[in-house]
Amino acid sequence: xxxxxWPLTGAGLDRIDALLEATSGVTTTGVTVLRDLDxxxxxxxxxxxxxxxxxxxxxxxxxxxxxxxxxxSARRLLxxxxxxxxxxxxxxxxxxxxxxxxxxxxxxxxxVWMTGLxxxxxxxxxxxxxxxxxxxxxxxxxxxxxxxxxxxxSLICVASAVSLPLYARLPHRGLRALKQEPxxxxxxxxxxxxxxxxxxxxxxxxxxxxxxxxxQGFALGVSAQTDTGFSTTAVADLPAASQVxxxxxxxxxxxxxxxxxxxxxxxxxxxxxxxxxxxxRTAIAERAVLQxxxxxxxxxxxMVTATLQxxxxxxxxxxxxxxxxxxxxxxxxxSLFEVVSATANAGLxxxxxxxxxxxxxxxxxxxDMLFGRVEVLALLVVLYPPTWFARKRxx
Length: 395
Fold this sequence. Notes:
Elements: H1 5-10, H2 15-26, H3 42-62, H4 64-79, H5 90-114, H6 119-130, H7 147-160, H8 164-173, H9 176-179, H10 182-206, H11 210-225, H12 240-252, H13 265-281, E1 293-294, E2 297-298, H14 301-327, H15 332-343, H16 359-374, H17 376-383
Antiparallel strand pairs: 1-2
Helix pairs in contact: 2-3, 2-16, 3-5, 3-6, 4-5, 5-6, 5-7, 5-8, 6-7, 10-11, 10-12, 11-12, 12-15, 14-15, 14-16, 15-16, 16-17
């Protein structure tokens, strides 16, 4: 992000705005301070899309380099983000995921181009969609695009929010691999629930006809759950209830091993399975032994600890950032929405993020985006001085 500040300042942004834009791009968040995008230099628009694309590739693939070079210590760092790799399969894993990412990119560009957009415009929408980034080359975002284009982009976002290694297993295991993936089922279910909730609120509160409300609800539901940030309507115009639903959806996010942000669905599944186990224990013999499993893996105490730890750190980041916004006189709900969107790397915005925003709050959003993308504990580990040197401690 720091490297990309220089070319963005050359495009007319001041340093803090350039840092916010670059951080939003590299972390695949999508909040932006740029306006009048229709008159912006196409080279700048491509730079924004390119930053998001290689940012998504970095999250999905380049972290594997840690495993291949530093083994045990890097594994502990990577596991704070929910990834699991073996030393023997790290290189092959990186190659497979890279191939999947490139294939999704080519398919996305072709699919969007076939809906009637110009080649460059198709690229500018497809690259952020594959990265679940959300930088659009227009101030209207997806509003005004043909319905086929919106549908194609939504499908691309869903495909990118699925664990990329899952696609690499399809040639060997077939479609049954999809049926055996609880996170995929949870992703589709969460999108459906969010879309129906937003549609119902739009219909009841704003009086939108159900066909229009459903179209708006599914576009926003996909965007929020996959943490992409595309939208067909201004978020600021949505009822407060819809904004709360979208905040919840953005916080949960997509699948582990995907380009989506959020706390990841696997952690929600762990909590739900533990609650289910607690309820079952009330109806069985006292000495009966029950084992909780998620994705075919037994839920170990360390997994529960890591999940609760992440959620607690997330809550601390959100609360601290929100208080900073409130202290500088910003409205409560729009401020909370902006903080959640940045930390979840979602990119949906109420319009609060702009060049007029206080510089300190821009830096807060930059920190939130980094905490969300790298994940809070992993970034704290990097910033923890004892981890800078490979020393053996003898107790």
